[in-house]
Fold this sequence. Notes:
This protein is mostly beta strands. The protein contains no helices and 22 strands. Strand 13 (about 190-200) and strand 14 (about 205-215) form a beta hairpin.
Amino acid sequence: MAASNIKIKLAETATTKSYELSICKLYLHHAWREPSQTHLTILRTSGHQRFGETVANNWTVHDGPDPKASAVVARAQGSHMFCGDRHNSFTLAFEVDWLKGSTLLVMGTSVQDGQWGIVGGTGYFTMAQGYINKGPAKNIDTGSVIELEIYAIFRTSKPMDFVQPPVQPYRDGPKGGPGGQYKNEPKREPHRLERFKLNHGNCIVSFEFSYIDKDGNRQTEGPWGGSRVWKFDEVKLGPNEFVKEVSGTVGQSEGYTVVTSLKFITNVQTYGPYGRENGTPFSLPEKKNGNVVGFFGSSGGLLDYIGVFVRP
Length: 312
Protein backbone atom coordinates (compact mmCIF):
# COMPACT_ATOMS: atom_id res chain seq x y z
CA MET A 1 0.00 0.00 0.00
CA ALA A 2 1.52 3.31 -1.10
CA ALA A 3 2.40 5.63 1.80
CA SER A 4 0.84 8.57 -0.06
CA ASN A 5 -2.58 6.90 0.09
CA ILE A 6 -2.89 7.01 3.87
CA LYS A 7 -2.89 10.10 6.08
CA ILE A 8 -3.35 10.37 9.84
CA LYS A 9 -3.28 13.65 11.72
CA LEU A 10 -4.14 15.08 15.11
CA ALA A 11 -7.78 16.21 15.39
CA GLU A 12 -8.29 18.64 18.28
CA THR A 13 -11.63 18.87 20.13
CA ALA A 14 -12.69 20.89 23.15
CA THR A 15 -12.47 17.99 25.60
CA THR A 16 -9.97 15.49 24.23
CA LYS A 17 -7.39 14.81 21.58
CA SER A 18 -8.50 12.41 18.88
CA TYR A 19 -7.01 11.30 15.58
CA GLU A 20 -8.34 11.47 12.07
CA LEU A 21 -7.91 8.51 9.72
CA SER A 22 -8.16 8.90 5.95
CA ILE A 23 -7.36 6.07 3.52
CA CYS A 24 -8.07 6.22 -0.20
CA LYS A 25 -7.39 3.91 -3.13
CA LEU A 26 -8.28 0.63 -1.42
CA TYR A 27 -10.10 -1.99 -3.46
CA LEU A 28 -12.45 -4.66 -2.08
CA HIS A 29 -12.57 -7.90 -4.06
CA HIS A 30 -16.24 -8.92 -3.82
CA ALA A 31 -15.72 -12.51 -5.01
CA TRP A 32 -19.37 -13.53 -4.94
CA ARG A 33 -19.25 -16.14 -7.73
CA GLU A 34 -19.24 -19.48 -5.90
CA PRO A 35 -17.32 -21.67 -5.39
CA SER A 36 -15.19 -18.98 -3.77
CA GLN A 37 -12.53 -19.06 -1.05
CA THR A 38 -13.81 -15.77 0.44
CA HIS A 39 -17.60 -15.97 -0.04
CA LEU A 40 -19.84 -18.85 1.05
CA THR A 41 -23.64 -19.12 1.23
CA ILE A 42 -24.35 -20.91 4.51
CA LEU A 43 -28.17 -20.62 4.43
CA ARG A 44 -29.91 -20.61 1.10
CA THR A 45 -33.63 -19.76 0.87
CA SER A 46 -36.30 -19.77 -1.79
CA GLY A 47 -38.54 -16.88 -2.71
CA HIS A 48 -38.28 -13.69 -4.69
CA GLN A 49 -36.55 -11.59 -2.01
CA ARG A 50 -34.28 -14.37 -0.62
CA PHE A 51 -35.35 -13.34 2.89
CA GLY A 52 -33.10 -14.88 5.56
CA GLU A 53 -30.39 -16.03 3.17
CA THR A 54 -27.04 -15.74 4.94
CA VAL A 55 -23.53 -15.50 3.51
CA ALA A 56 -20.15 -15.66 5.28
CA ASN A 57 -17.47 -13.44 3.81
CA ASN A 58 -13.70 -13.07 4.11
CA TRP A 59 -13.30 -10.62 1.22
CA THR A 60 -9.80 -9.38 0.48
CA VAL A 61 -8.97 -5.67 0.33
CA HIS A 62 -6.07 -4.68 -1.94
CA ASP A 63 -3.87 -1.65 -2.57
CA GLY A 64 -4.64 -1.77 -6.30
CA PRO A 65 -7.61 -2.50 -8.57
CA ASP A 66 -6.30 -5.87 -9.87
CA PRO A 67 -6.69 -8.55 -7.15
CA LYS A 68 -4.15 -10.79 -8.90
CA ALA A 69 -1.45 -8.11 -9.18
CA SER A 70 -1.86 -6.09 -5.96
CA ALA A 71 -1.14 -6.83 -2.31
CA VAL A 72 -3.75 -7.78 0.29
CA VAL A 73 -3.76 -5.11 3.01
CA ALA A 74 -6.92 -6.09 4.91
CA ARG A 75 -9.79 -8.60 5.03
CA ALA A 76 -13.51 -7.93 5.44
CA GLN A 77 -14.44 -10.79 7.79
CA GLY A 78 -18.07 -11.30 8.77
CA SER A 79 -21.42 -12.00 7.18
CA HIS A 80 -24.35 -10.48 5.38
CA MET A 81 -28.01 -11.48 5.48
CA PHE A 82 -30.90 -10.68 3.15
CA CYS A 83 -33.46 -8.73 5.19
CA GLY A 84 -35.25 -6.81 2.46
CA ASP A 85 -31.82 -5.43 1.51
CA ARG A 86 -28.48 -6.92 2.44
CA HIS A 87 -27.43 -6.31 6.03
CA ASN A 88 -23.62 -6.31 6.25
CA SER A 89 -21.71 -6.72 9.49
CA PHE A 90 -17.98 -7.37 9.33
CA THR A 91 -14.57 -6.61 10.81
CA LEU A 92 -12.07 -4.92 8.52
CA ALA A 93 -8.86 -6.54 9.80
CA PHE A 94 -5.63 -4.95 8.62
CA GLU A 95 -2.66 -7.19 7.83
CA VAL A 96 0.23 -4.92 6.83
CA ASP A 97 2.87 -2.70 8.41
CA TRP A 98 1.99 -0.93 11.67
CA LEU A 99 -1.73 -1.44 10.95
CA LYS A 100 -1.46 -5.19 11.53
CA GLY A 101 -3.68 -6.24 14.42
CA SER A 102 -5.90 -3.16 14.24
CA THR A 103 -9.49 -3.39 13.03
CA LEU A 104 -12.49 -1.29 12.04
CA LEU A 105 -16.01 -2.55 12.80
CA VAL A 106 -18.30 -1.93 9.82
CA MET A 107 -22.08 -2.14 9.27
CA GLY A 108 -24.52 -1.11 6.56
CA THR A 109 -26.74 -2.15 3.69
CA SER A 110 -25.76 -3.17 0.17
CA VAL A 111 -22.29 -4.21 -0.91
CA GLN A 112 -21.80 -2.04 -3.97
CA ASP A 113 -23.85 1.14 -3.40
CA GLY A 114 -23.83 4.07 -0.96
CA GLN A 115 -21.86 4.06 2.29
CA TRP A 116 -21.05 1.77 5.18
CA GLY A 117 -20.81 3.07 8.73
CA ILE A 118 -17.75 2.58 10.95
CA VAL A 119 -19.10 1.89 14.44
CA GLY A 120 -15.98 0.91 16.36
CA GLY A 121 -12.46 -0.42 16.19
CA THR A 122 -9.57 -2.07 18.02
CA GLY A 123 -5.82 -1.67 18.23
CA TYR A 124 -4.84 1.77 16.99
CA PHE A 125 -8.45 2.50 16.04
CA THR A 126 -10.16 2.22 19.44
CA MET A 127 -13.58 3.94 19.51
CA ALA A 128 -13.46 4.67 15.79
CA GLN A 129 -16.49 6.32 14.19
CA GLY A 130 -16.84 7.26 10.55
CA TYR A 131 -17.85 5.98 7.15
CA ILE A 132 -16.66 4.14 4.06
CA ASN A 133 -17.54 5.55 0.65
CA LYS A 134 -17.84 3.03 -2.17
CA GLY A 135 -16.96 3.83 -5.77
CA PRO A 136 -18.56 2.24 -8.84
CA ALA A 137 -18.12 -1.55 -9.01
CA LYS A 138 -16.03 -3.04 -11.81
CA ASN A 139 -17.13 -6.52 -12.86
CA ILE A 140 -14.47 -9.22 -13.18
CA ASP A 141 -14.61 -13.00 -13.72
CA THR A 142 -14.83 -13.81 -9.97
CA GLY A 143 -17.33 -11.07 -9.03
CA SER A 144 -16.52 -7.37 -8.78
CA VAL A 145 -13.95 -4.88 -7.47
CA ILE A 146 -15.16 -1.86 -5.44
CA GLU A 147 -12.98 1.15 -4.66
CA LEU A 148 -13.12 2.22 -0.99
CA GLU A 149 -12.48 5.56 0.69
CA ILE A 150 -12.25 5.33 4.50
CA TYR A 151 -12.72 8.24 6.90
CA ALA A 152 -12.89 7.93 10.70
CA ILE A 153 -12.16 9.70 13.99
CA PHE A 154 -10.58 7.46 16.65
CA ARG A 155 -8.90 7.56 20.06
CA THR A 156 -5.96 5.45 21.14
CA SER A 157 -3.48 5.05 23.98
CA LYS A 158 -0.81 3.80 21.57
CA PRO A 159 2.06 6.21 20.71
CA MET A 160 1.43 8.15 17.49
CA ASP A 161 4.73 9.99 17.12
CA PHE A 162 4.59 9.73 13.33
CA VAL A 163 1.31 11.63 13.05
CA GLN A 164 1.36 14.64 10.75
CA PRO A 165 0.28 18.02 12.18
CA PRO A 166 -3.29 18.96 11.22
CA VAL A 167 -3.63 20.48 7.76
CA GLN A 168 -6.09 23.35 7.82
CA PRO A 169 -7.94 24.35 4.65
CA TYR A 170 -6.85 27.75 3.40
CA ARG A 171 -8.88 30.52 1.76
CA ASP A 172 -8.34 31.61 -1.84
CA GLY A 173 -10.13 34.54 -3.44
CA PRO A 174 -12.65 36.01 -3.47
CA LYS A 175 -13.52 36.88 -7.06
CA GLY A 176 -16.39 39.18 -7.95
CA GLY A 177 -17.64 42.65 -7.12
CA PRO A 178 -17.26 44.79 -3.97
CA GLY A 179 -20.93 44.70 -2.94
CA GLY A 180 -23.25 42.32 -1.18
CA GLN A 181 -25.53 42.91 1.77
CA TYR A 182 -24.54 39.65 3.48
CA LYS A 183 -21.11 38.18 4.11
CA ASN A 184 -21.41 34.40 3.81
CA GLU A 185 -19.18 32.00 5.74
CA PRO A 186 -19.53 28.26 6.48
CA LYS A 187 -20.68 27.37 10.00
CA ARG A 188 -17.95 24.76 10.50
CA GLU A 189 -14.54 24.02 9.04
CA PRO A 190 -15.17 22.13 5.77
CA HIS A 191 -13.41 18.82 5.15
CA ARG A 192 -15.03 17.40 2.00
CA LEU A 193 -17.44 18.90 -0.55
CA GLU A 194 -20.47 16.70 -1.33
CA ARG A 195 -22.87 18.75 -3.48
CA PHE A 196 -23.64 22.22 -4.83
CA LYS A 197 -26.74 23.86 -6.30
CA LEU A 198 -27.05 27.02 -8.40
CA ASN A 199 -29.93 29.29 -9.43
CA HIS A 200 -28.75 31.06 -12.58
CA GLY A 201 -29.72 32.93 -15.72
CA ASN A 202 -27.78 35.91 -17.06
CA CYS A 203 -25.68 35.63 -13.90
CA ILE A 204 -25.51 33.57 -10.69
CA VAL A 205 -28.62 34.40 -8.65
CA SER A 206 -27.90 32.12 -5.69
CA PHE A 207 -25.56 29.36 -4.60
CA GLU A 208 -25.70 26.65 -1.93
CA PHE A 209 -23.54 23.66 -1.05
CA SER A 210 -23.27 20.72 1.36
CA TYR A 211 -20.08 19.37 2.91
CA ILE A 212 -18.68 17.10 5.59
CA ASP A 213 -17.06 19.08 8.39
CA LYS A 214 -13.87 18.15 10.24
CA ASP A 215 -15.89 16.15 12.82
CA GLY A 216 -17.60 14.03 10.16
CA ASN A 217 -20.98 15.81 10.26
CA ARG A 218 -22.91 16.90 7.16
CA GLN A 219 -23.56 20.65 6.87
CA THR A 220 -25.47 22.76 4.31
CA GLU A 221 -24.85 26.45 3.56
CA GLY A 222 -27.13 28.78 1.65
CA PRO A 223 -28.74 29.51 -0.59
CA TRP A 224 -26.58 32.63 -0.76
CA GLY A 225 -28.21 35.26 -3.00
CA GLY A 226 -31.63 36.23 -4.24
CA SER A 227 -34.93 34.34 -4.20
CA ARG A 228 -36.12 34.95 -7.74
CA VAL A 229 -36.50 31.67 -9.64
CA TRP A 230 -34.52 31.25 -12.87
CA LYS A 231 -32.89 27.92 -13.67
CA PHE A 232 -31.74 25.45 -11.00
CA ASP A 233 -28.91 22.97 -11.43
CA GLU A 234 -27.65 20.62 -8.73
CA VAL A 235 -24.53 18.43 -8.75
CA LYS A 236 -23.88 15.58 -6.30
CA LEU A 237 -20.24 14.53 -6.33
CA GLY A 238 -19.29 10.86 -6.44
CA PRO A 239 -17.62 9.22 -3.42
CA ASN A 240 -14.19 9.51 -5.07
CA GLU A 241 -14.80 12.77 -6.93
CA PHE A 242 -13.14 16.04 -5.87
CA VAL A 243 -13.41 19.60 -7.17
CA LYS A 244 -9.96 20.69 -8.32
CA GLU A 245 -10.82 24.09 -9.83
CA VAL A 246 -13.64 26.66 -9.84
CA SER A 247 -13.61 29.13 -12.73
CA GLY A 248 -16.04 31.73 -14.00
CA THR A 249 -16.53 35.32 -15.05
CA VAL A 250 -17.20 38.62 -13.28
CA GLY A 251 -19.31 41.24 -15.05
CA GLN A 252 -22.21 43.67 -14.86
CA SER A 253 -25.82 42.81 -14.08
CA GLU A 254 -28.53 45.30 -13.11
CA GLY A 255 -25.84 47.94 -12.58
CA TYR A 256 -23.78 45.81 -10.14
CA THR A 257 -20.51 43.93 -10.52
CA VAL A 258 -21.34 40.29 -9.72
CA VAL A 259 -20.42 36.70 -10.54
CA THR A 260 -21.92 36.12 -14.00
CA SER A 261 -20.89 32.49 -14.52
CA LEU A 262 -19.36 29.51 -12.69
CA LYS A 263 -17.75 26.27 -13.84
CA PHE A 264 -16.54 23.38 -11.66
CA ILE A 265 -13.73 21.05 -12.74
CA THR A 266 -13.33 17.76 -10.86
CA ASN A 267 -10.97 14.84 -11.23
CA VAL A 268 -13.79 13.13 -13.16
CA GLN A 269 -15.49 15.75 -15.34
CA THR A 270 -16.45 19.42 -15.82
CA TYR A 271 -19.80 20.87 -14.68
CA GLY A 272 -21.08 24.05 -16.31
CA PRO A 273 -20.67 26.77 -17.20
CA TYR A 274 -23.71 28.01 -15.27
CA GLY A 275 -25.00 31.52 -15.86
CA ARG A 276 -23.67 33.52 -18.83
CA GLU A 277 -19.94 33.77 -19.59
CA ASN A 278 -19.82 37.56 -19.72
CA GLY A 279 -17.00 39.66 -18.27
CA THR A 280 -13.55 39.09 -16.82
CA PRO A 281 -12.54 35.42 -16.41
CA PHE A 282 -11.09 34.02 -13.17
CA SER A 283 -9.90 30.68 -11.81
CA LEU A 284 -9.62 29.45 -8.21
CA PRO A 285 -7.51 28.30 -6.49
CA GLU A 286 -4.57 30.16 -8.00
CA LYS A 287 -2.24 27.38 -6.86
CA LYS A 288 -3.56 24.04 -8.09
CA ASN A 289 -2.32 22.12 -5.04
CA GLY A 290 -5.41 20.60 -3.43
CA ASN A 291 -9.17 20.02 -3.43
CA VAL A 292 -11.89 22.63 -3.07
CA VAL A 293 -13.84 21.62 0.06
CA GLY A 294 -16.03 24.67 0.69
CA PHE A 295 -16.87 28.26 -0.20
CA PHE A 296 -17.31 31.75 1.23
CA GLY A 297 -18.89 34.75 -0.42
CA SER A 298 -21.01 37.86 -0.38
CA SER A 299 -24.56 38.23 -1.64
CA GLY A 300 -27.71 40.31 -1.79
CA GLY A 301 -30.15 39.89 -4.63
CA LEU A 302 -27.38 38.13 -6.59
CA LEU A 303 -24.07 36.40 -5.82
CA ASP A 304 -21.65 39.34 -5.57
CA TYR A 305 -18.41 37.44 -5.00
CA ILE A 306 -17.19 33.93 -4.21
CA GLY A 307 -14.06 32.38 -2.71
CA VAL A 308 -12.96 28.83 -1.98
CA PHE A 309 -11.56 26.78 0.88
CA VAL A 310 -8.77 24.50 -0.34
CA ARG A 311 -7.51 21.41 1.46
CA PRO A 312 -3.93 20.58 0.35
